[in-house]
Amino acid sequence: MPSDSIPAVLRAARADDAGPLTGLFLESRAAAMPYLARVHSDEATLAWLTHVVLPGTDVLVAETREGGETRIAGFVSLDGTELEHLYIAPGLRRRGIGSLLLEAAKAARPEGLALYTFQRNAAARAFYERHGFTAVAFDDGSRNEEKEPDVRYRWSPAR
């Protein structure tokens, strides 16, 4: 864990987290991947998180407490053994929150995990590789709505 890590508490996401998670999702994507096409409005993204992600996947939220105020610092979403989303608030990246969320995802899916990330997202690729994920396939972008080339990663526990 980084030396400047901050304590975070994990909890299951609630329906009323949809608004804050939408803001975090949009801010994180814009900060980490400014090249990425915006294919949905903020309102459509909120509807998707409200009606698809939160009820249809297992979502864990990381909360931090700073200055007496609790803040959602990041979240991870799992659909079976697929790691669908892992996003951290832009100002809190590289503080141990992503590692905490990813370790919780691994503990929840000890049989292994798989995910896609964009090929150009070098920071995410390095993060997953540091955490034992291996690139297993590269795609031309035809499988995602952003039409951005991506890479498939897998993690299998040591046996």
Description:
The chain has 159 residues and is an alpha+beta fold. It has one domain (9-155): Gcn5-related N-acetyltransferase (GNAT) (Aminopeptidase), CATH 3.40.630.30. Helix content is 32%, strand content 30%. It is built from four helices and seven strands; from the N terminus they run E-H-H-E-E-E-H-E-H-E-E. It has helices at 18-32, 42-56, 97-108, 122-130, and strands at residues 9-12, 58-66, 69-79, 82-88, 113-118, 134-138, 150-155. A four-stranded antiparallel sheet has the order 1-2-3-4, with helices on both faces. A three-stranded antiparallel sheet has the order 5-7-6, with helices on one face. Helix 1 crosses helix 2. The longest helix is centred in the first third of the chain and has 15 residues, at 18-32. The radius of gyration is 15 Å and the shape is globular. The mean pLDDT is 94.
Question: Which terms would index this structure?
Answer:
159 residues; alpha+beta; Aminopeptidase; four-stranded antiparallel β-sheet; 4 helices
Question: Strands, helices and their partners?
Answer:
Blueprint: E1 9-12, H1 18-32, H2 42-56, E2 58-66, E3 69-79, E4 82-88, H3 97-108, E5 113-118, H4 122-130, E6 134-138, E7 150-155
Antiparallel strand pairs: 1-2, 2-3, 3-4, 5-7, 6-7
Helix pairs in contact: 1-2
